[in-house]
Each structure stands twice: as C-alpha cells, then as structure tokens.
Amino acid sequence: MGITWTTDLNTGIEVIDNQHRRIVEYINQLEQAALRRDMPSVGRVLEDLVDYTQSHFAFEESLQEEVGYQYAKPHKAVHEMFIKRVSGYQQRHAAGENVIEALHTMLSTWLIHHIKRDDMAYVREVGVKAQAATQPTQTGGWLGRSLKRFFG
Ligand SMILES: [Fe+2]
Ligand SMILES: [Fe+2]
C-alpha cells in the first residue's frame, strides 16, 4: 500500500519536509512499478531513490553539524546502517532474487519510523536553529550552498 503523507510526518523545517516527501514519492513509485511488474522501472526508481536518499542524509547531517546537534554522530550512524541494508537488498535484486516486496516494506516502515523518532528528536532539540539556518534569505547562505553541494 502506498504511503500517504500525514501531518505527523511534518518536522516544520520546510526544506527537510520537502525532501522527505520526495523520498516517500519514490517509495510509492517503486511500489507502482513493482505492481506493474515493470522491472526496468523498478531498477531505475530504486537507483534514483537511493541516490536521492543519500543526498538527503548528507544534507541533514550537515544541517545537524551546522546547528551543533549533540547526537549528530549517532544520527549519521543510523543513516549509514540504513544505506547498508538497502544495498544488501540491491545486491540480491541484481542477482535476480525477488526482494522488491520485502524491500518496499522495509523502506516504508524504516522511513516513517526514522522521521517520527530520530528526525523529530533533532528538530525538538535544535529545530529553532535549524529553522534559521534553512531560511533562503541571503545568497551564499548555508541553505543555498548546501543544496548545491549535496543535490548538485
Ligand atoms: Fe535522518
Ligand atoms: Fe530525514
């Protein structure tokens, strides 16, 4: 079943919420492609999803560093563990194993859980600073620089 965006997934930091929404869209696209048994699309969406998620993680980690979040390191470790898990699935997928359904379930549960628990935790603690750092006010500011750096 597709993920529906609900308000309890909003962190209130617009740029982060937009990135999370985009990841959710990719997860839903993956499910659609799998339901159509459209394997080329599955492969393509999976690649885009991993690529985009890695950019989001790097962006978020950099934001946490910028605002001095005390648990930036463990948060980064959680991101890394997730990427490892996904690449495990990707390898099995590439080897011809049928893992898409299991992967899709893992992606949806993991992401929702991570946003609600870990991402909300940093927003509770350093949300005000993160808000300020992500205002698109000045050119050459943190937001513009970081979007360019992590999303190209
Ligand atoms: Fe995160
Ligand atoms: Fe996040």
Short description:
GO terms for molecular function: metal ion binding. By secondary structure, this protein is an all-alpha fold.
Topology:
Blueprint: H1 14-35, H2 39-66, H3 72-94, H4 100-133, H5 142-151
Helix pairs in contact: 1-2, 1-4, 2-3, 2-4, 2-5, 3-4
The protein binds fe (ii) ion (FE2) (2 copies).
Residues 20, 56, 60, 119 line the site of one fe (ii) ion (FE2).
Keywords: Iron, Metal-binding
Family: Belongs to the hemerythrin family.
Pfam families: Hemerythrin
Keywords:
mainly alpha; 5 helices; binds fe (ii) ion; Four Helix Bundle (Hemerythrin (Met), subunit A)
Please tell me about this protein's structure:
This protein has 152 residues and is mainly alpha-helical. The protein has a single domain (13-151), classed as Hemerythrin-like (Four Helix Bundle (Hemerythrin (Met), subunit A), Up-down Bundle), CATH 1.20.120. Helix content is 77%, strand content 0%. α2 (39-66) runs antiparallel to α3, α2 packs antiparallel against α5 (142-151) and α3 (72-94) runs antiparallel to α4 (100-133). The structure holds fe (ii) ion (2 copies). One fe (ii) ion binds next to α2. Keywords: Iron, Metal-binding.
Structural class: mainly alpha
How much helix, percentage-wise, in residues?
over 70%
Question: Which ranges are low-confidence, i.e. pLDDT below 50, for 5 or more consecutive residues?
Answer: none
**CATH architecture field:** Up-down Bundle
Q: How much strand?
A: under 5%
- Number of helical stretches of at least 4 residues: 5
How many structural domains are formed by the residues? 1
Radius of gyration: 16 Å
Keywords: Iron, Metal-binding
GO molecular function, one term: metal ion binding
Pfam families: Hemerythrin
Family: Belongs to the hemerythrin family.
